[in-house]
Amino acid sequence: MAQQNKLIIVESPAKARTITKFLGRGYKVEASQGHIRDLPKSQIGVDVDNNFEPKYITIRGRGEILTRIRKEAKAAKAVYLATDPDREGEDISWHLANILGIDPSTPCRVKFHEITEKEIKSAIKKPEPLDLNLVDAQQARRVLDRLVGYKISPLLWRKVRQGLSAGRVQSVATAMIVEREREIEAFQSEEYWTIAGDFPGFGARYQGQNGDKADLKSQEDCDAVIRRVREARFTVGNVKRGERKKYPAPPFTTSNLQQEASRKLGFTTSKTMQIAQQLYEGVDIAGVGTQGVVSYIRTDSTRVSDEAIASVRETILGRFGGEYLPATPNTYKSKKSAQDAHEAIRPTNMEYRPDQLKASLSRDQYRLYKLIYDRFLASQMTPAIYDTLGAEMAADTGDKFVYSGQHKRFAGFTAVYEEGHDDVQEEADTTLPALENGMELRLVDAHADQHFTQPPPRYTEASLVHALEELGIGRPSTYAPTISTITTRGYITRKNKRLEPTELGVVVTNMMTKYFPDIVDIDFTAEMEKELDEIETGAMDWHKVIADFYGPFEKTLEIADQSIEKVEIKDEVSDIPCEKCGAMMVYKTGRYGRFLACPNFPECKHTQALLKAIDAPCPECGGKLYERVSKRGRHFYGCENYPTCQFVSWDMPVTDKCPDCGGRMVLKRNAKGDAYHLCVNENCKKRVPVSAPEDE
């Protein structure tokens, strides 16, 4: 092979295809398909007696890829390592450099943060040496996670059950879900009542009498107030008018994107990252070709380049006009722990509007791209402006009602996008009443409402990611695999978008808390995360960080191995006989949720899916509908007559018909967890509040 091409090595074949189209002749682009070398699966692979040196081997199945890359590198004029611009990418490039005999101190590393022709061609002209601090930081994380996982997991196999695992981040995440469940179980609900008053043109809430705050414990308490105020004369006072500005949220970081995609699109964290990767690596745009349409997707920074700011400001001015464009660009502070190595997640080209790319994207790609595009566009727009009004309605009986409301006067960024929130209800936009001090009013009506204090809500994927980030546990790239792992291990289940611990999750967490308290301690884990970040900046030596951890950890392991007794988790017996041998089947938890298995295993290996029928019939054939679990752990509803009948639904169908159009309805929940029926007719979308089924 003639020495003429410059070889560029990336991670994925999709990225390789995109870059090849940009560079053309004179370049050869090969994909390593991720890691080439890693620690062996069959052993711990870390020499604890030799300064924790890792023992890397070529990953099984990568031999042919490595042979091809070696051949191309030998024939190339120059070799550039262009893996992802993060710790893991730097580590992959370092392994490739070692295998190919490339000096890491030479300009062999190419970094780009978006896969566009301009960015790729610019990056190729500015190769740089490998950042060995980044490599050390990744090695430290890999070694630490291997020591924790490969030392504790076998102990769990011996003491609890085969196939279990523990991990530096996964154990903390599981413990948080278990602890939240305990808070819910221990919660004592208290009854309280409120009174709403209807005045001409507006409503107000009862505050109390003679300066004392209302303390309404029963219907009788409320009836006494309502009788007293029904014929009272009210005078308006303490009228306060004002203006409130609501500012846009910053462009997406990785964790923000995972949270919003969970709230607004119902995506799991792993699905979000999978689709975001596709948008980053390149999609085939009709009439244009393959392009990466979003910038690098693993980032904890809100920083944006000057060029991107100029482009989005030009777009805002052209689409919305000057009043929607701030005089100077909006700036956002990143968190103290942010690495700031990459920009925020944004579109690579503002001219690629979501509606223009819709035909070139899959449905899920379009929805996620629109979320990213709209969030970035809104982040550089003017604030929304609300007129606010507060007033008191004082009765001649000494009772007082208060009014508080807001009306959006100028949409600002909300014309494009508004951030979602977990378990928080935004104040409604309303027409403000014309109230003046001294006005006299009559109460039109009043009604009492019974309430009960609510326990803290179970985590959603979005709220768990938010909590982990706030506590400094893990990093953006770890959240999706962490949630996926603890679901696969059977430590948690996902139901109605909420995460619940299983009995197995509780048992393992109890054991970890008792014998490995540091591993599940939030403060300890967060401090360890800081030390790992300091390796990245060169402030700490990775060998010392691991050594400081391993000494106490090794002693803890010895004590735990001697102290922990075998835990037997008894299987719950069902009332369903085994079709093969007649024994009563037992409930088991696998990677896809609960299922039925014969207790006579391994003599009898019969298993069957655990199906739960729902009341509503199949809307297509009238057959029974069963609740099932997908391979990713999500609950869905399918017809008993599958595959003859192909009906499936992520939301539970209900028997009620839409009161407006007569269409089919499904059970949904809002951010607070309140249940309602939603009409699936796109032209209707009627909502009907309901009480949640007790067996959910």
TrEMBL record:
Q: Name one Pfam family in it.
A: Toprim
- Region described as Interaction with DNA: spans on this chain: 165-170
Q: Which residues form the Toprim domain?
A: 5-115
Under the GO molecular function aspect, what terms does this record hold? DNA binding; DNA topoisomerase type I (single strand cut, ATP-independent) activity; zinc ion binding
Coiled coil spans: none
Q: Which Gene3D superfamilies match?
A: 3.40.50.140, Bacterial Topoisomerase I, domain 1, Topoisomerase I, domain 2, Topoisomerase I, domain 3, Topoisomerase I, domain 4
Q: Which CDD domains match?
A: TOP1Ac, TOPRIM_TopoIA_TopoI
Residues at the active site = Y296
| Swiss-Prot/TrEMBL keywords | DNA-binding, Isomerase, Magnesium, Metal-binding, Topoisomerase, Zinc, Zinc-finger
Give GO cellular component annotations, separated by semicolons.
chromosome
Q: What class of enzyme is it?
A: isomerase
One GO term under biological process is: DNA topological change
Topo IA-type catalytic domain segment(s): 131-557
* Site (Interaction with DNA) residue list: H35, R141, R142, D145, Y150, W157, R298, R489
Provide the catalytic activity annotation.
ATP-independent breakage of single-stranded DNA, followed by passage and rejoining
Write down the EC number. 5.6.2.1
Annotated family: Belongs to the type IA topoisomerase family.
State the oligomer form and interacting partners.
Monomer.
Q: Which NCBIfam families match?
A: topA_bact
Please describe what this protein does. Releases the supercoiling and torsional tension of DNA, which is introduced during the DNA replication and transcription, by transiently cleaving and rejoining one strand of the DNA duplex. Introduces a single-strand break via transesterification at a target site in duplex DNA. The scissile phosphodiester is attacked by the catalytic tyrosine of the enzyme, resulting in the formation of a DNA-(5'-phosphotyrosyl)-enzyme intermediate and the expulsion of a 3'-OH DNA strand. The free DNA strand then undergoes passage around the unbroken strand, thus removing DNA supercoils.
Protein's UniProt name: DNA topoisomerase 1
